[in-house]
Amino acid sequence: MKFKKQIYGMKAYQPGKPIEEVQKEFGLKEVVKLASNENPFGCSPKVKDFIVNNGMNFAIYPDGYAQELRTAVSQHLGVDESQLLFGNGSDDIIAIITRALLYPGVNTVMADPSFSQYSHNAEVEGAEVRKVPLKDGKHDLEKMLEAIDENTSIVWVCNPNNPTGTIVSDEELSSFIEKVPSDVLIVLDEAYFEYITDPAYKDTLHYVEEYPNVLIMRTFSKAYGLAAFRIGYAIGQSKLIATLDPVRAPFNNTVLSQKVAIVALEDQPFIQETVEQTEKGKQQYVEFCNKHGLKYYPSQTNFILFEVKADSDVIFQEMMKRGFIIRSGNALGTPGFIRVSIGTEEQNRKFLSLLEEVLKEQGVLA
Ligand SMILES: *Cc1c(COP(=O)(O)O)cnc(C)c1O
Questions:
Q1: Index of the ligand 1 atom closest to the CA of residue 232
Q2: Which residues carry this modification: N6-(pyridoxal phosphate)lysine (predicted)?
Q3: Ligand 1 site, residue 36, Cβ cutoff 6 A
């Protein structure tokens, strides 16, 4: 058959291992997944009430324009309704953007390592991927600027960056945006926006007002705890959104997910509590790293990437045997490191005590 030739040899996204699989494989009663940056506190309890009590007609197609959710998000952010594009997770938004702008002969610039879906989707479209190594775990915006040429269509800024958790400061970002040619789309992926506490990050919504080529992506998958429902969105100028919108699948958010996102958005105290608890949990990891002299990246997210001074695949395996699923740095482009999603206080405590045991076994710690 006549597939795009770049499809051959590509692999499907490798997600964190599912809990059930690990339970079966190792005969474990309890398995905790700290691999995909999901919210360990679940989601707003109001969502569960809603799901039990809703009286929806599931035979009817969803509203493709997501009007009710659009109104809620536009009011929450203080932007016009026409400035929003909803996706089946931000993954879908990434696919829409790449499908709209990338094809053989053009290129796209991104940090390395960063979120894998930028390059994955670009490869599907047959575009050239230009990866610019991180500097001290942070985007090297100078080098990214240098990588941009007349054939560049999209530049991605993952802020905070996955897998390092680091942010680009507002100062750095503003001079970068100013210098990027106006015909290059700048995507600011802010999947972890709610978790940011560093004042060096300043709200980026005003860039959308000032620059027709800036698009922000946010999601309900992380702090809102709704990863299962697949709702992400983009914010840009109305004209940009209208240009991207025809690429979107007609009913890309389900009826239930649209409703649930509205309910979750209304419960901001839940988000505040999540962020507070996550900050405290992160401190447990920072203390562990400091105590044992393990390098870590300052994280503005609900995960932390830190050094294990051993083969990270081995640490990943050993922790899995003990009932914790994490991400090996080998899978993320950061060998010798592991990425751990911040869990509940108890999960973190248990994880770190088992990790200490494993690191001793491996001869890393005395
Ligand atoms: C988790 C994540 C996403 C994907 O989020 P969904 O809305 O669940 O598709 C996008 N970008 C980054 C950086 C992420 O970590």
A1: 7
A2: 222
A3: no
Full domain range(s) for residue 52: 46-267
Question: What residue owns the CA closest to ligand 1's atom 1?
Answer: 191
Q: Please choose from 73, 92, 93, 115 the residue to mutate so as to test ligand 1's pocket, defined by most ligand atoms within 8 A of CB.
A: 115
Are 186 and 240 contained in the same domain?
yes
Please, are residues 192 and 301 in contact by the beta-carbon 8 Å criterion? yes
Where among 267, 287, 307 does a domain terminate? Answer: 267
Give the residues across from 210 on adjacent strands: none
CA-nearest residue for atom 12, ligand 1, is 191
Closest CA to 186 of 163, 161, 152, 219: 152
Best mutation site among 96, 114, 194, 222 for ligand 1, i.e. most ligand atoms within 8 A of its Cβ? 222
Nearest CA to ligand 1 atom 5: 90
Q: List per-residue pLDDT tens for the chain, 366 residues long.
A: 999 999 998 998 877 778 999 999 999 999 999 999 999 999 999 999 998 888 788 889 999 999 999 999 999 999 999 999 999 999 999 999 999 999 999 999 999 999 999 999 999 999 999 999 999 999 999 999 999 999 999 999 999 999 999 999 999 999 999 999 999 999 999 999 999 999 999 999 999 999 999 999 999 999 999 999 999 999 999 999 999 999 999 999 999 999 999 999 999 999 999 999 999 999 999 999 999 999 999 999 999 999 999 999 999 999 999 999 999 999 999 999 999 999 999 999 999 999 999 999 999 999
Going by CA atoms, what residue is nearest to atom 14 of ligand 1? 191
Domain tally, the chain: 2
Is the domain of 39 the same as that of 72? no
Please enumerate in sequence order all residues whose Cβ is within 8 A of that of 40, keeping only pairs 6 or more positions apart, or say none: 34, 341, 342, 343, 344, 347
> What is the CB-side half-sphere exposure of residue 36 using CA atoms within 13 A?
15
Q: Do 29 and 135 share a domain, yes or no?
A: no
- Tell me which residue of 136, 259, 158, 156 sits closest to 213, measured CA to CA: 156
